[in-house]
Write a structure and sequence with these properties.
The complex is a heterodimer of chains A (about 475) and B (about 700). Chain A has 11 helices and 19 strands. Chain A is an alpha/beta fold and about 475 residues long. Chain A folds into 2 domains: about 350 residues, Alkaline Phosphatase, subunit A, CATH 3.40.720.10; about 60 residues, no CATH class. In chain B, the strands form 6 sheets. A two-stranded parallel ribbon of chain B has the order 1-11. In chain B, strands 2-3 form a two-stranded antiparallel ribbon. In chain B, helix 26 packs across helix 27. The longest helix of chain B is centred in the middle third of the chain and has 43 residues. Chains A and B meet through strand 3, helix 4, helix 6, helix 7 and strand 19 of A and helix 14, helix 25, helix 26, helix 29 and helix 30 of B.
């Protein structure tokens, strides 16, 4: 009997992988996210990378709503401003039409030894540009926010299946290294729940949202009315009362997994608050991230948390900036609305790169900065720009990525990616590659079909890999 | 739409395997009438005879029967999704009559909570959702859910249950002849209107231009009622699956004439009242809008002129012409520049002096403050559209409604259809006649197997929605066919089937036994396919939350009505979890956290079987959530009140209420030791009961 046919609602039982890994439990078992490596799963088979990885962790920075590449990392000549060009609408209106190219009001400075131009909105990022490889020739297919977010996070556009997010694929393949923390953490408000979804890989590999504040995980702490001594007594008695049942049903892996799930829950109560407690961080480090400064405090704290998670072996940290609704980067009306968002993110991002570097962690941490799409060179009748899936910029840093590289280009307007075009699958393949995973092998069978994260012909963006 | 563009390859492994051909497929052969084995059927229940025979052949030893209270808890959770009360336990223990088990089964099956429990099972299979992106049928969709609950509670025969949801009429006969010889059409029963929520739920947009209504109908009907997967057939043929691409679109043609229609469910008085409210709203709005337009007109004109004069002269000329006088080319120019000439409020404000901005803002604010009258209660149904009924149907390239393959016209039809088929009685009616007929070898087999799975956690055929070539073979083919045949003979009564199953010895079997025996059986049959023991089952999300609230005497057992939001989940008394709004939106997380944590699906696709995970967030929920804290407090209060100071009685009552059995001696000692006579600690005891593995599992 084919295990994969049993759960056609878009999820596969985790146990399938356990059986494949040669761990012969009966019934269901705890998933990777909450599993302790070595106990439940055989690290030599299912969990080992396909080859020696450059990255141990990946930090995904999603700028929700669509950053204008033209005003940030892909400068164009303003002499073309005012030209009417052939354009295609977005969303429900895919009509062909004429639109005027609008001027860019940014000034660009060549930074670092590489001389990569960065706009005046990102001075701090300019300061670390020699660690960054800019890819100016990204493209995707969806023209509206949510479909494009789903495409970017899952590599798929259809809703025939519940496709998992990139972080879930990584967790599924590699498992957790820290027995006290989830392997895939999401910080900030995402654009879509799909960004957290384990889909058909199961709830056990979905992202665990870390909330702002002292309590990072839902239901982490007992209600205030119970003292810790009293809870301890309860847990001890609970253990005694569970004993007979657990003995009687010991052959069922689910029962063994339940014991461990309580143990892990207990350990998380101890270890998770420590992760979000920044008191041990020196002021100089906090300043690096802009913590304590009005504009950068929120995002700075989120990135500092990301670094602390990296240090504790968390595999994938996804941070959504300005999420909710269409995303605040969605600048149809006026490009000036980008200014405060750039200010919020510029210093913290540069701070993260510097901090990781000074700790020697940058070489094993991959940072990816992207939006669901870019913005058009033209506007409707505003001083803002529309959605542009045809060409946009993403950048990567750390973990073997060639710092200072600029790869690919868009046309003279910044509308279409023309040279060394890369579909988002290539970006995902790059991430997998640096994590030591062969994108072609990242495949599961759903409803009798092999399904992958990346498209068939996807390849890592080799020229930016050192 | 790229739906279905996923490439569908045959993996090398699959090709290497011996794949049976369509002709040899067991599930398409007519039902056999297997003889009931004689030995081992001391119970007189044929189910036990078939199970015993298969066990002998496999070399496993069936375990003994579970004790009475274990069965009572098992069957209560199974049939109504709630634990048995201490009083129910007492009554059952006292009843030594031979019909005691049947009496309990009947009591539970006649409870209106049975529909709430099994309705949820069916709704998983029928992809019920309260929310699904812009699902037009969302307002009032709960009336379909309530129809399902009601149908189960009335034991509507399964064929009528299916017929009503596809055709809107549970009656198979379409005309009746009076004594005087007059022919009259059989009108559908009024409530069967709501059965059509099954079809309207599939539409993704109001105009249904993407034809999701029909596509979703075919996909769901195929998997739910025929046990045939069609995901691939939407794009191309598979030699190993019974449904070809053309057959998929022929089936879709059965539903192509359907359009959505909104039905108001208001009384005449409500209709008049709303009419008045709308009049009032519109007249107030008009006054405000007119005044505002007049106020901004000079600015609007100025901006428009400025922008227009920036355009090339020939464009200006074209746009200045009245629309009627423009040539096609000129109209295209005007359309092209339309967005550029559109004036937004934010732009108008840039021209205004401060005082006028204030005035303008106050207009905008007043307009925004006007509330449209609430819409009346509605239900979205489907009906045949005369234009669509005569339109041709085609194969759609990759399932994309905007890319019909004009070379491949399809006629209404379905796989396994009889050779000479006429649709004069109507497309859906003709189809449903065949679907529900005893000539259809899949109909009863798929149904009894599904119901078997809900009782035993696994079907006799394990992949309950895939009876195709890849679905494997049933573990007990004879039992499956016997049950299917009897199901038909017993007029498709689901209640009859439930009763037969839960009173069988197979269902009464213990879930564990002597260690040596268990280990020997595990060797021979590690997956318990021969049902040598009753499978240990974790309660699903819905009965779990319900049970925690029920033991705390805080569960509202009201049946039906609008779904509630998770935010209201801790208001006491709380409604049953099957009424918790669920669904999917790409742009907001609308699936309740609790349901996600405990593996409930969001209804985007039909789910024949839920995954079961064991995770730390589940542990955290039971340890620390507000709901469990509240339930523990109320449960404790209940225990203190009922036991009036007698701690032994309090422990007994606690165990009996939460676990359906009295405490063992050592358990009582451990609890009393924990309590130390402190009434404040009773809440801790209640919390422990809810956190015991035994509370979450049915043994």
């Amino acid at each position: 009997m084919n295990e994969r046919l049993l759960f056609p609602c878009g999820r596969i039982a985790r146990r399938k992988f356990l059986f494949q890994a040669g761990v012969g439990f009966v019934g269901t078992a705890m998933g990777a996210l909450w599993a302790e490596e070595g106990k439940l799963l055989n690290p030599e088979s299912a969990r080992a990378a396909h080859f020696s990885p450059r990255a141990k962790s990946v930090i995904l920075l999603y700028m929700c709503g669509g950053v204008s590449h033209i005003d940030t990392f892909d400068p164009k000549d303003n002499k073309l401003a005012g030209t009417m060009i052939d354009a295609v609408g977005f969303g429900d209106n895919m009509a062909e039409m004429k639109r005027p190219v609008i001027p860019c009001h940014r000034t660009f400075t060549r930074h670092g030894q590489s001389g990569t131009p960065v706009s005046d909105w990102f001075p701090h990022i300019g300061g670390v540009i020699d660690d960054i490889a800019v890819v100016r020739s990204m493209h995707c297919r969806e023209t509206n926010h949510f479909p494009a977010v789903i495409e970017m996070s899952t590599g798929h556009r259809d809703r025939l299946l519940e496709h998992p997010s990139l972080g879930s694929w990584v967790t599924h393949a590699l498992g957790a290294t820290n027995r006290n923390l989830p392997a895939f953490v999401s910080i900030g408000r995402p654009s879509s729940p799909v960004q957290l979804s384990g889909g058909y890989l199961g709830a056990s590999v979905s992202a665990t949202p870390f909330q702002q504040g002292d309590v990072p995980i839902r239901n982490l702490h007992p209600p205030k009315s119970i003292s810790s001594a009293e809870r301890e007594r309860q847990i001890q008695t609970l253990d005694v009362l569970n004993r007979d049942f657990r003995e009687e049903y010991a052959v069922h892996s689910a029962i063994a997994a339940r014991t461990r799930s309580y143990e892990l829950a207990g350990r998380m109560q101890l270890s998770a608050p420590e992760v979000v407690d920044f008191t041990s961080e020196p002021d100089s480090v906090k300043r690096l991230y802009g913590v304590g400064q009005k504009e950068t405090d929120d995002f700075g704290k989120q990135l500092l948390l990301a670094r602390r998670l990296v240090e504790r072996g968390v595999r994938c940290i996804q941070i959504c900036h300005a999420g909710g609704g269409n995303g605040a980067w969605d600048a149809h009306d006026d490009m000036k609305t980008h200014a405060p968002l750039c200010l919020q993110t510029d210093k913290p991002i540069a701070g993260l790169i510097r901090d990781l570097k000074q700790r020697g962690l940058l070489q094993s941490t991959l940072i990816v900065w992207t939006s669901e799409f870019g913005r058009t060179p033209w506007s409707q009748n505003t001083t803002g720009r529309d959605h542009n899936p045809k060409g946009f910029t993403s950048w990567l840093a750390g973990a073997g990525i060639k710092g200072g590289a600029v790869h690919g280009s868009t046309d003279e307007f910044g509308y279409r990616a023309v040279e060394n075009r890369h579909y988002i699958s290539d970006l995902q393949a790059t991430i997998l590659q640096q994590l030591g995973l062969n994108p072609e092998k990242m495949e599961v069978e759903i409803e009798g079909r092999p399904v992958r994260l990346v498209e068939k012909n996807a390849e890592p963006i080799w020229p930016i890999i050192g | 739409m790229l739906t279905g563009l996923i490439a569908c390859f045959l993996s090398a492994a699959l090709l290497a395997k011996e794949v049976p051909t369509k002709e040899a497929l067991w599930s398409l052969k007519p039902l056999s009438s297997p003889a009931i084995a004689d030995a081992g059927a001391a119970s007189g229940n044929p189910i036990d005879a078939f199970i015993a025979q298969a066990a002998r052949e496999r070399g496993v030893t069936l375990l003994g029967l579970a004790d009475k209270l274990t069965w009572l808890r098992r069957v209560s959770y199974d049939l109504v999704g709630l634990p048995p009360t201490p009083q129910e336990q007492e009554e059952f223990l006292k009843d030594d009559s031979s019909g005691a088990y049947l009496k309990v089964a009947d009591r539970l099956l006649e409870s209106e909570q049975h529909g709430a429990r099994y309705g949820r099972h069916w709704l998983d299979v029928l992809r019920y959702a309260d929310i699904d992106e812009h699902m037009p049928a969302a307002p009032g969709i709960h009336l379909w859910r309530d129809w399902v609950i009601n149908a189960l509670n009335r034991d509507l025969p399964y064929d009528e249950f299916v017929r009503a949801q596809i055709s809107g009429n549970r009656a198979a006969r379409r005309r009746i002849v009076s004594a005087a010889g007059h022919l009259t059409d059989v009108e559908p029963r009024p409530e069967d209107l709501f059965a059509l929520g099954f079809l309207s739920r599939g539409a993704a947009i109001r105009a249904d231009t993407d034809q999701q209504l029909a596509i979703s109908a075919v996909e769901t009907i195929s998997t739910a009622f025929l046990g045939l997967t069609t995901g691939c057939a939407k794009c191309h043929d598979h030699f190993y699956d019974p449904i070809s691409q053309v057959q998929f679109y022929s089936m879709k043609a059965l539903f192509d004439p359907l359009v959505l229609r909104q039905i108001e469910l208001a009384t005449p008085a409500q209709v008049f009242e709303r009419g008045r409210a709308v009049d009032d709203y519109e007249s107030r709005l008009k006054v405000l809008v007119d005044a505002m337009r007049k106020f901004i007109e000079p600015y609007h004109k100025r901006l428009y002129e400025e922008r227009l004069s920036d355009l090339p002269p020939e464009a200006q000329a074209a746009i200045r012409k009245p629309e009627k006088e423009r040539t096609v080319a000129e109209q295209k120019v005007a359309d092209d520049y339309h967005p550029i000439l559109r004036i937004d409020p934010s732009k108008i404000k840039t021209l205004m002096p401060q005082a006028e901005i204030k005035q303008y803002d106050s207009y905008l604010k007043e307009i925004a403050a006007l509330k449209q009258p609430d819409p009346p209660p509605v239900f979205w149904t489907v009906e045949e559209d005369s234009k669509r009924a005569v339109a041709k149907s085609y194969v759609l390239t990759t399932g994309d409604a905007s890319r019909p393959d004009l070379k491949q016209e399809v006629k209404p039809g379905f796989p396994l259809a009889p050779k000479s088929l006429s649709f004069h009685a109507g497309r859906r009616e003709t189809f449903v006649d065949w679907l529900t007929s005893s000539d259809n070898p899949l109909f009863a087999r798929v149904a009894v197997n599904r119901i078997w799975q809900w009782h035993f956690a696994s079907g006799l055929h394990e992949s309950t929605s895939d009876f195709g070539v890849l679905g494997g073979k049933p573990t007990h083919p004879q039992l499956l066919d016997w049950l299917a045949g009897e199901f038909i003979k017993n007029r498709y009564s689901m209640r009859w089937l439930h009763r037969l199953i839960v009173t069988s010895e197979t269902y009464r079997r213990a879930s564990t036994g002597p260690k040596a025996l268990v280990l020997a059986n595990l060797q021979a049959d590690p997956k318990n396919q021969s049902l040598w023991s009753f499978p240990l089952k974790r309660l699903e999300a819905e009965p779990l939350r319900d049970a925690a609230l029920h033991v705390a005497a805080s569960l509202d057992l009201g049946v039906g009505g609008k779904s509630f939001d998770e935010g209201k989940a801790t208001e006491m008394p709380a409604r049953r979890t099957m009424y918790m709004a669920r669904g999917y939106r790409s742009f907001a997380d609308v699936m309740p956290d609790f349901l996600q944590t405990f593996d409930a699906d969001d209804g985007r696709v039909a789910c024949p079987r839920r995954t079961q995970t064991v995770t730390a967030p589940q542990a955290l929920f039971f340890m620390n959530s507000r709901l469990i804290d509240e339930a523990s407090a109320r449960f404790a209060e209940r225990l203190r009140t009922s036991s009036v100071g007698d701690l032994n009685e309090l422990v007994r009552l606690g165990y009996s209420t939460a676990l359906g059995r009295p405490p063992k001696a050592e358990e009582r000692v451990a609890v009393l030791n924990f309590l130390q006579g402190d009434p404040e600690r009773v809440k801790g005891f209640a919390w422990m009961l809810l956190n015991l593995d035994e509370f979450l599992y049915v043994r």
